[in-house]
Write a structure and sequence with these properties.
Elements: H1 15-21, H2 27-36, E1 39-40, H3 41-47, H4 53-65, E2 69-74, E3 80-85, H5 87-91, H6 93-103
């Protein structure tokens, strides 16, 4: 007898997945800044008042794992890393702007 692995999908609304991708203390702000241009970690630390290295690193990693940001190593001196919106991330810009407009 074989058993099938059944993945539970506890989400009842398809939009829940989308909202979870951008939920968290820093992810919406990081996404908003990525819309403007490439991001660098040290620059984000200065721009996001109250953030710290650990929470910022986690938020960036989660956005990268969700396929919204791409991490690119720039091999010029000094060596640094920049984060760019992926194609998937770019498709979410209108949705994000619509959500922002609802609060105005």
């Amino acid at each position: 007898m074989t058993t099938k692995k059944i993945e539970e999908n506890t989400e009842t609304c398809p939009a829940q997945t989308l909202l979870k991708l951008l939920s968290g203390k820093w992810k919406p702000e990081i996404f908003r800044l990525a819309v403007v241009g490439p991001l660098r970690f040290s620059s984000l630390l200065r721009q996001l008042e109250g953030s710290n290295k650990q929470t910022l690193a986690i938020a960036l990693k989660e956005l990268e794992e969700a396929g919204l940001l791409e991490k690119v190593t720039i091999k010029l001196k000094p060596l640094h890393i920049e984060y760019y919106l992926t194609e998937k991330g770019k498709t979410m810009i209108p949705v994000f702007l619509t959500l922002e407009a609802l609060v105005d």
